[in-house]
Amino acid sequence: MSKKDLSLLVLILVVGTVVALINPRFLYVGNLSNTANQIGLFGIFSIAEAFIIIIGGIELSVGSVIALLGVLFIDLIVNHDVNWVVALAMIVAAGLVIGLVHGTLVTRMRIQAFVVTLCGLLIYRGAARYYTEDATAGFGFGASFPMLEWLAAGRTNVLGFPLPHSVVALAVVAVIAWVVLHRSVFGRYLLAVGKNEEAARYSGIRTNRVIISAYVICGGLTAFSAILIAMYTRSISPAVHGSFYELYAIAAAVLGGCSLRGGEGSIIGVVLGTVLLQVLQNLVNLLGIPSSLNFAVMGTVILVGVLGDQYLVQRRHRASAAKGREQASVAAAPLERVKVE
Amino acid sequence: MPAPFLELVDISKSYPGVVALDHVGLQVSPGEVVALIGENGAGKSTLMRVLGGVVEPSGGFIRVDGAARSSLTVADAIKAGIAFVHQELNLFDNLDVAGNVFIGREPVHGGPLRLIDRKRMYADVAPLLERLGCDFAADAPLADLSLAQRQLVEIMKALSLDARLVIMDEPTSSLTLAETDRLMRTVAGLKAHGVSIIFITHRLNEVMQCADRAVVLRDGRVVGALTRAELSPAAMIRLMIGRDLKSLYVPPAAPPGDSVLEIVDAVTDTYPGRAVSLSVRHGEILGLAGLVGSGRTELARAVFGIDPLRGGTIRLDGEPIRIASPRAAIEQGIYLVPEDRKGAGLLLDVSIAENISLPDLASYMRFWLVDTDRENENAVRQRERLKIRAPDVKTAVGSLSGGNQQKVVLAKWLSMRPKVLIVDEPTRGVDVGAKQEIYGMLRRLTDAGVAILMISSDMEEVIGVSDRLAVMHEGAISGFLDRSQFSEHNVLQLAVGHTITAEGP
Ligand SMILES: Nc1ncnc2c1ncn2[C@@H]1O[C@H](COP(=O)(O)OP(=O)(O)OP(=O)(O)O)[C@@H](O)[C@H]1O
Ligand SMILES: [Mg+2]
To answer: Are residues B156 and B289 in the same domain?
Structure first.
C-alpha cells in the first residue's frame, strides 16, 4: 500500500468516525451492509474507468452503457426467455464489443477519447430509451430467477454480517486487476503507454493494441457491473438509470491516485476512492443533509482531499530536501579536513 | 580583465543521495567567455540553475555587484542581467518570433484594454535580428524554425532583457556543424559587446575555439581552471576524468563480413522523390553523416517500423523482410536508439530498472508476471557496465543528468541481442570519458558480429569512430567514403551535395 493509499484510508476512517459519532445508525449492521453493497457495485466500474485513465484516456459512456446493457439483460431473460447464463455471456460480450469499438476509434481513427466516449454517452442513452420506448424495464410478477438473484444481489452471512455478493465480486475483480496492473507485463505496458506513448512505441510495445485492450477490459467490466446493478435495482428507467455514474468512476479513480495525464494509478486507491464516495453518500443520508446537496458535498470533499494530498506531497518534498542538506554537510566534512591539510 | 561583477562562493547543493555541488566557487567578469566542462553528472547544469534562480543552493552565497545573498529567485537573476538559454528550449510553438522574445512583458497599448502593441514589438525585435544576423523574420511562426534558429530566438530574448551574462547549457548538442559555427560567431559578437557568457559543452574543440578560460567540475567540485594559454584538449580531459584518453578509432578485430542489413531504394515520406540504398556489414560501424534534415532520422524510423516505407525493400541477411512496426523490427533483431531521448527514448518518471527492461519485458516474464528481482539484477549489471551515475537503479531517470539518461537509453538495447543496431546521435550530451566507453561498447558489439549504423552530426565522432561512411544530402546518399578518404572536408562536400574532387582535403 502506498503512502497515498494510506492517507486515503485515514481520511475514510476520519469521515466514518465523525459520521458514526453524530449518528450511530451509521454503524448498524443493516446500514453497513447496504453501503458495502453500493461499494461493490460502484467499485467494479470505477476500476474499469481506472484502466482507461491510466492509459491517458477517458471513458464518459459508463453510465449510458450500464443503462443500455441493463435494459437489454432484463429484456433478454424476462421477455425472450434466454437462459440467464447465456444472457450474461451475451451482455458481457456486448460490453467487450463496445470497448473494442471505442478503442479502435481512438487508435486507428485518431479521434480523441473524450469525443468518442461523449458520443457513446449520448448514443447508448438514446438507444436504451428508444428500445424500451422510455418505459421502465423490470421483472414482471411471477418472473423469478432465484439462482441469478442470489448470486448477483444476495447476501451471505459471514460472522453475523450479511456480506453482499457484489462486494465479493468487487474483491475478485480488484485482486485480478491489481495483479494485472501492478505485477504483470501487460500492466507495465499500460503504465508505459500512459506515461509516454512515443517512448513505448520505440520500445517495441504495440501501443494501439494496448490501448484497445484497455477499452475492451473497461467495456467488459462495465457490462458485468451493469448486470449486477440491474439485478439490484430490479427495474430500470432508461432515462435516469446509471446517469452520472461515469463521474463517480472518474472521481473514485482520481481520489485513488490516478493522474488524468495518464501513467499513474493504483487499484487499491480506486477501491478506497469508491469507499470514500459511498461513505459520503451515506453521510448525506444519515445526517439529514438535504439530498439535493449530495453532489455539492461530494465535490467539496474531493476538492479538500486533493488539496490536502497536494499539501502532504509538498511537505514530503521539503522534508527530503532538508534530509539531503544534512547529508551534504556530512559529506562536506572530510573535504574541509583535506583543505586544512 | 575588468573586475568580476558576479561571484559564486562556496555554493553547495544536494539532492537525496547525491551531492550535486560541493563548495563551488566561480567568478565572472564582463565580456569574458567561461567554458564550464566536466563529466556527466558533475554538476554543471545544477550550478547554472543556481545562477538562474531555478534551484536554491543548500549552502554558500552569491555576490552580484558586490551585494551578497544566499540565493537568487528567477526575478532576481533577470534583474541582475543573468539570462539562461536552456538545455531544453523554453519557447512557445504557437507564437511567432517576436511573441516569444517578449513573452510575459509584451508592450501594450489601448489603455485599460491592454492590447498587445504588435507594431512596437516587431520594431523592437528588428535590431536584435540584425545584430545576430538571423535569416528569419520577426513574424515567422516559431513552429517553422529549426532548432538552431530557435536558439537564436532564446538569445534574442536574453539580449532584449539587457543581459550581462548569457548562460548556454550544451547549446550545440543538437546543431549541425555550420550552425555550430554560426553560434560561435554569435558568441564572439556578444563578447565584443561586453556580454559575458558561460558555455557548457562536451565538445572540447568548441572550448578551444571560443573560451577565454575553462572551469572544470568533477563530482560537484571545481577541480581546476585553465587559462586561455593553458587550454588544450589533453589538459581538459585530464582534469575532467583524471586520466588520459587513447585515440578515438579502434579498428575492428576482424575484417567485416557479409551484408546484414541492406536497404534498397528506400523512400520515406519526407523525401518522396528520393531513394536511399546502403548496406551494413557484419562487424562494421557504418557512419551516416549529413546535415540535420537530410533525412537520416527518417530513414532510421522507416527501417525500425515507426513510419511506413513508401518504396524499396529492406533485406536482412539477404532475405527481404517487411517491417510494419517497431515490434517486428525488434523481433528481427533490428534495434534503434532514437535521437530524442526525452520524447522517444525514456519514461522520465519511471525507474532506471523499469526503463531498461521495457523493450524486453517478455523475457523477464514468469507466468505473465514481471520478475522484478531479475529485472533489478540486470539493471545493476548495466549500470556498472555503462557507469551510469545514480544512487540506485530505482531512481527515476528524470532526475539523472543528461548524459546519464543517454546511457540508460543505450542500456535498454544492450541487454538484448541485436543483429543490427541503429544509433541516432548516440552520444548527444555525453561526456568525453563516457563517449569513449560507448564507442568501446559499440566496437565490442561489432566484434561480436553486430552491424551498426551510426547516425551522427558530431564530426569528430563520425570521422573518429566509423569504419566506413555514408553521407546523405536531401534524402539521398551523396557518397560513400572509406577510411582512407575520411576528412572533414570530404564529409562536408558530400553533405552539401557536391561530389568529392580528387584533390581531397
Ligand atoms: N532534480 C534532481 N533530483 C535529484 N537529483 C538531481 C536532480 N537534478 C540533478 N540531480 C543530480 O545532481 C547531479 C548533477 O547533475 P547535473 O545535471 O548538474 O549534471 P551535469 O554536469 O549537467 O551533467 P550532464 O553533462 O550530463 O548534463 C547528478 O548526479 C544528478 O543525478
Ligand atoms: Mg547538464
So the answer is: no
Average pLDDT over residues A295-299: 85
Do B367 and B309 lie in one domain? The reply is yes
Report how far ligand 2's centroid is from the alpha carbon of B471 (Å).
30
CA distance A329 to A331: 5
* Distant-in-sequence, close-in-space partners of A175: CB < 8 Å, separation ≥ 6: none
**Cα–Cα distance list, A306 to A255, A315, B210 (Å):** 7, 14, 51
Structural domain total, chain B: 2
Closest atom of ligand 1 to CA, residue B46: 18
Cell of A279: 461513505
Cross-strand bridge partners of residue B471: B289, B479
Atom 7 in ligand 1: residue holding the nearest Cα? B399
Hey, which bits of B95-203 come out as E strands? 108-109, 115-116, 165-169, 196-200
User: What is the span of the domain harbouring residue B225?
Assistant: 6-240
Q: Are residues B329 and B180 in the same domain?
A: no
| DSSP code at position B42 | S
Residue B8 host element (H or E):
strand B6-15
Per the CB < 8 A criterion, the answer to whether B318 and B261 are in contact is: no
Do A219 and A286 form a contact (C-beta atoms < 8 A)?
A: no
Tens digits of per-residue pLDDT, A308-338?
A: 777 877 777 666 655 544 544 443 333 333 3
Q: B251 in a domain, yes or no?
A: no
| The pLDDT of residue B88 | 64
Buried b / exposed e over A154-189, threshold 16 CB at 10 Å, is bbeeeeeebbbbbbbbbeebbeebbebbbbbbbbbb
In a domain, B250, yes or no: no
Rounded to an integer, what distance in angstroms lies between the CA atom of residue B255 and that of residue B270? 35
pTM: 0.83
* Residue percentage of chain A with pLDDT more than 70: 91
Tell whether ligand 1 has an atom less than 6 A from the beta carbon of residue B433.
no
Same domain, B226 and B82: yes
Chain A: give the shortest CA distance to residue B84, in Å. Answer: 24
CA distances in angstroms from A319 to A148, A314, A315, A331, B46, listed in the order given: 54, 9, 6, 19, 20
Length of chain A: 341
> Which residue ranges in chain B fall short of pLDDT 50?
502-505
Cell of B147: 532548432
Domain boundaries, chain A: 3-289
Give the ligand with the smallest distance to the CA of B86: 2
Residue A202 confidence (pLDDT)? 93
Give the three-class secondary structure for B438. helix
On whether both B122 and B217 belong to a single domain, the answer is: yes
Claim to verify: residue B346 and residue B379 sit in the same structural domain:
yes
Share of chain A above pLDDT 90, in %: 67
Cα distance between residue B175 and residue A169, in whole Å: 58
Nearest by Cα to B30 from B60, B62, B1: B1
- The CATH number of the domain holding residue B359 is 3.40.50.300
- Is residue B432 within 6 Å of ligand 1 at its C-beta? no
Rounded Cα distance between B239 and A167, Å, is 66
One domain, residues B205 and B123: yes
Average pLDDT over chain B reads 88
Hey, which residues does B421 pair with through a beta bridge?
B335, B452
ipTM over 0.85: no
Tell me the CA end-to-end span of chain A in Å, nearest whole number.
50
CATH of span A3-289: 1.10.3470
- Specify burial of residue A199 (Cβ count, 10 A radius: 0-12, 13-18, 19+): buried
Interface test with A, best of B46, B56, B58, B415 (most A CBs within 10 A): B58
Cα separation, A246 vs A248, whole angstroms: 5
Q: Confirm if B27 and B207 have CB atoms less than 8 A apart.
A: no
Same domain, B274 and B205: no
